[in-house]
Design brief:
By secondary structure, the protein is of the alpha/beta class. The protein contains 14 helices and 15 strands. α1 crosses α2, α6 packs antiparallel against α13 and α8 crosses α9. Its EC number is 1.1.1.49.
């Protein structure tokens, strides 16, 4: 369904994220016919560039970063026809008038700030004071949304001085991933799982976002963040919220976000002994510290932790979170481990091999899909022997007619135009997540000798992460 006519102003239009993700995503939505004829994308940045130069840059970005095999030169040419460019100085007066003159009165105005957060207040203020932002305009912000509670509060205050909360779209691109949304469908559109979705039936949950890439090329940013700020406070927190939240009364943005905030507010503080931090240490030239350009860095490139959601539904069911760079494989999943049956007629000493346990795995990437591990009778001739078998639904195989799943950015940008905030973080949600993360981070930054444990590139993380589980008589699922 085509969206309403829009003028999308992209600040930071020549930057890395714009070229890799935002512009190719817009192109793919255009390609499938989601834009009405007169939609326009207006690139801005500090650099002087003419319209043609911008069009060339975008065409090149689409050829490099667009979906392989899905781009034709004709379509790219038609798309770049929608593009305009004007240089704007975010911190000065230059360019704002020209930008305002370019915008139409009868189209939705969306301002996408693909720039560092230090520019958010200036740009938001200028958009408002120049009258370029109307009461119906949307403003879209990229992460990181602050680096602690105080900075997130300051950003929220600066935004709210110029925009209403219903106009503010804080992106966490994990919320745009197909399987993440499927988690809500799985839980709330089926009657099968929800009766079991509590501590009486679920032993524990493992949330893993493993990455094989290192931090080369972005060490300067990463070294100030680490895995906790870069991934846990936002992406893993969102996965935890969607897994743990109560069913919202309605599928509306605020009903969903209210329930997520309640999960964050129910989190217990995490004690230092429930956390394992690691830093990859490869052969010369391939260590985190070299990639970060900081030989004494104590920033973690891996973190695992045990998190407790202290409410009626989850008391006694821990959530183990784990994420890191330079691991064996790129693999992200939520694994829900169910308790064994209350009475076990297939105990180990019955010669059956014992029950294998039910695990529901929601795979985010790669091979998005859902698997339910069950115990069945081994079909072989060996009598009553039990074996594990998967009920497997890989979306690409089960639903081939659905075609390529949308990239997270494609979905999220279109939601901005539609005015649907369900998959965006509300201000209080971001602040609640920082309020939880801050004391955890302070727990190690206050102890300067608390250096992360080294781990080998291509491994599944440091030893301490394994111990965290072993202490509880549990094991991580394998990576790769
Ligand atoms: C970003 C982080 O938000 O998410 C990166 O800053 C990380 O460090 C990336 O690599 C992971 O996203 P995805 O979609 O590739 O899992």
């Amino acid at each position: 369904i085509p969206v309403q006519s829009f003028d999308l102003v992209l600040f930071g239009a020549t930057g890395d994220l714009a070229r890799r993700k935002i512009l190719p995503s817009l192109f793919h939505r255009f390609q499938i016919g989601q834009f009405s004829d007169d939609c326009r994308i207006i690139g801005t940045s500090r650099s002087e560039m003419d319209r043609h130069g911008f069009q060339e840059m975008v065409a090149d970005a689409i050829r490099t970063y667009g979906q392989p095999g899905e781009t034709s030169d004709d379509e790219i040419a038609a798309f770049v026809d929608l593009l305009h460019y004007t240089a704007v100085n975010a911190r000065g007066d230059n360019g704002w008038q020209a930008l305002g003159d370019l915008l139409r009165d009868d189209a939705i105005r969306a301002f996408y700030l693909s720039v560092g957060p230090s520019l958010f207040p200036d740009i938001a203020g200028r958009l408002r004071s120049t009258g370029i932002a109307t009461p119906d305009s949307r403003i879209v912000l990229e992460k990181p949304f602050g680096h602690d509670l105080a900075s997130a509060q300051a950003l929220n205050a600066a935004l709210r001085a110029n925009f209403e909360e219903h106009q503010i779209y804080r992106i966490d691109h994990y919320l745009g991933k197909e399987t993440v949304q499927n988690l809500m469908a799985l839980r709330f559109a089926n009657s099968l799982f929800e009766p079991l979705w509590n501590s009486s039936h679920i032993d524990h949950v493992q949330i893993t976002v493993a990455e094989s890439i290192d931090v080369k090329g972005r060490g300067e940013y990463y070294d100030k963040s680490g895995a906790m700020r870069d991934m846990v406070q936002n992406h893993l927190m969102q996965l935890l919220c969607l897994t743990a939240m109560e069913p919202p009364a309605r599928f509306t943005p605020n009903a969903v976000r209210d329930e997520k905030v309640k999960v964050i507010e129910a989190l217990n503080p995490v004690a230092p002994d429930q956390i394992a931090r690691g830093q990859y240490r490869g052969p010369e030239g391939d260590s985190y510290r070299e990639h970060a350009g900081n030989p004494a860095s104590t920033t973690e490139s891996f973190i695992a932790m045990k998190v407790e959601v202290a409410n009626w539904r989850w008391a006694g069911t821990p959530f183990y979170l784990r994420t890191g760079k330079c691991l064996r494989a790129r693999e992200s999943e939520i694994a829900v481990f169910f308790r064994d049956p209350p009475h076990n007629i297939f105990a180990e000493d019955t010669g059956t091999g014992g029950i294998k346990g039910n695990v529901l795995v929601i795979r985010l990437q790669p091979d998005e899909g859902i698997t339910l591990r069950t115990t069945i009778k081994d079909p072989g001739p060996g009598g009553m022997r039990l074996t594990g078998a998967n009920l497997d639904m890989t979306f690409a195989d089960s639903l081939p007619e659905a075609g390529r799943p949308q990239d997270a950015y494609e979905r999220l940008i279109m939601d901005v135009i539609r005015g649907n905030q369900t998959l965006f973080m509300r201000g209080d949600e971001v602040e609640a997540a920082w309020a939880w993360a801050d004391p955890i981070i302070a727990g190690w930054t206050d102890h300067s000798n608390d250096t992360p444990q080294p781990y080998d590139p291509g491994s599944s993380g440091p030893e301490d992460a394994l111990l965290l589980m072993h202490r509880d008589n549990r094991r991580w699922r394998g990576i790769g």
